[in-house]
Amino acid sequence: MAHRTPSIFISYRRADAAANVGRLFDWLTRYYGEDRVQFERVFVDTDGIDPGRDFEQVLNRRLAAADVVLVVIGPHWLEARNERGRRLDQPEDYVRREVAAALAQGKRVIPVLVGGASMPSRDALPDPLKPLATLNAIAIDDALHSFRQDFDRLVDAILQRRRGRLEVERDRLRLFLRALRLSSLLVPATALLLVLALWVGLLEGLGIDRHVSGWIQGLGDRLIPHRPGPGVTLVALDAATLARLTPRPGDQAALAAWFRGLARWRRDAAALVDRLSAAGARAVVFDLYFEQQSAADAELAAAIGRARERGTRVVLGARRLDSEGRPLMAPLLREAADWGSVCIHHLGGRSVMVALAALDPAQRDREIQRGRLPALALRAVSADPAPRFAIAAREIVLEDGGERPVPRFSLVRRIRYLAPQGEPGACRIPPDGDDAAMLLLHRLPAGYWSDPARRLSQRQALEGADERLRGQVVLIGALEGARDRPRLAAGRPHGLELHASAVADLLQGHALKRPTLGSDLLLMLLLGAAGAALGYLAAAWPPVRRRLVLGAALLGYLAPAVILVPLGWLLPVLYHLGAFLAAYLAIRWLWHRTLAGGPGLRD
């Protein structure tokens, strides 16, 4: 049922309750609205009398027109005195005249107690005011939370209604919408800042987002460990081979000895290629680079040719490009074998990525973009030197895709190297500044790739053909004393193991994905709306309840974010929580500043 808005006259003593009346007047006018007609329904002498008007005439006219008279009684209302004694006992006292006239005219009079005052007794009042003592009063506490509740009770008394849940929420919504109008630029400005932060990757640029996402990924991988499927076998090089591959400073004799050792390793590599291709391996992949020429390069190139005749592709690793944009590699081997980048990108915390391929900058705005400079893992599963990437679908389109699952990637990211260009051993594929299709790697259980079913020693691989290698992608590289082990927050997997994980995920068509920009914006809007709704609802709650519910809401987001990791999704947690908290704090600030008149947000 709709209620007519009553006219209100506020009677008070300035020396007793001016501050309380100012606050009450502000809240009443905000409740009624901003327009002049509604504003004039609440009268108080400090704001309702224009300069030059007859003070007494205005008071009498407004009192006669009032439907409700609020008699504000503070601690000194009853005993206020002047040189002639107690003011209430003096017939010309304005407070006495206002209250007496309201009672005589049969107005609805509501005593309002402020500042801890209590209702005066009948005997303490002069005769014209004695009926006031029998009226039911409403006490209003100055504390913010209590004031809101007491004010609601006063509004119910003014409107002569019983307060149900519907009335409570309608009043709060009316106040909130008015507050929102008064601060109309705040919410759009907040939304714009969040969109800009997402667009320029502010949090990612500072490195905060990477660490938080890595922490979420670590929890998810620990909750339900990721286990790649079959199809990959590792061959770990022995210590003697690694020693031959490591150049040592010295004189010409030492350098000559190293080159002899390098040639011996190339012959061992040729023997490995022959053995593994004879065993039916699908691909033999070296997580090693072959930058120096050796006397045995022709033998290794011949073994690569024989392997190709058996249907086995051989892929060699590269870490840098020469001045012509070709992999830095011994010429004979570059012509004989496929090649792929061995570079692993460590993002901080637990996050590791493989740059599957650089994207053609000329096709940056296209939905399907051509790739170049493919990674070792991508060449291990496909001979296509220039695969295409469907950006929205996060799928890799291969010319030799066949019937296997469509390989996927996680996101597109611009390559930024921290190590200087000339630092020895620094990876530089793809080049700095290129956009690349990246594959996020799960954190596998400790020892996953150490299982004898997935790993052979160099000696085992050389001793003879093994039926279990048929159809396998065999990765050869360093495990003991490896230098390409990214520093992770918990444990340090070998680069060879990371490449193996990437190959296994590509074979399965699995990728740990990040949402697209459009999906991110939609999720941020939804979480922002949820934060705003919680800020609106929490305005009426005690601080302890508000904090508990806010904490539960944050955990309610983080728990699904962790659970989604094993399902193949890694959310940008900081962006989402930032949208939620920004909207929550903005609405809380609106409630506090605009409705309560406070200087800022506080519990």
Which tags fit this structure?
disordered C terminus, alpha/beta, seven-stranded antiparallel beta sheet, 43% helix, Rossmann fold
What does this structure look like?
The chain has helices at residues 14-32, 36-39, 55-65, 94-104, 144-159, 165-182, 186-200, 202-206, 208-223, 239-245, 252-278, 297-309, 331-336, 376-381, 458-463, 495-508, 517-538, 543-564, 573-595, and strands spanning 8-11, 42-43, 68-73, 81-82, 85-86, 108-113, 138-139, 232-236, 283-289, 313-318, 338-341, 344-348, 351-359, 368-372, 388-390, 395-397, 411-414, 435-440, 455-457, 473-477. By secondary structure, the chain is α/β, with parallel strands linked by helices. The chain folds into three domains: 8-163, 3-Layer(aba) Sandwich (Rossmann fold); 187-206 and 515-595; 229-508, no CATH class. Strands 12, 13, 14, 15, 16, 17 and 18 form a seven-stranded antiparallel sheet that branches. A six-stranded parallel sheet has the order 11-10-9-20-8-19, sandwiched between helices. It has a five-stranded parallel sheet with strand order 2-1-3-6-7, with helices on both faces. A hairpin with a 4-residue loop joins strand 15 and strand 16. Helix 9 crosses helix 18. The longest helix is centred in the middle third of the chain and has 27 residues, at 252-278.
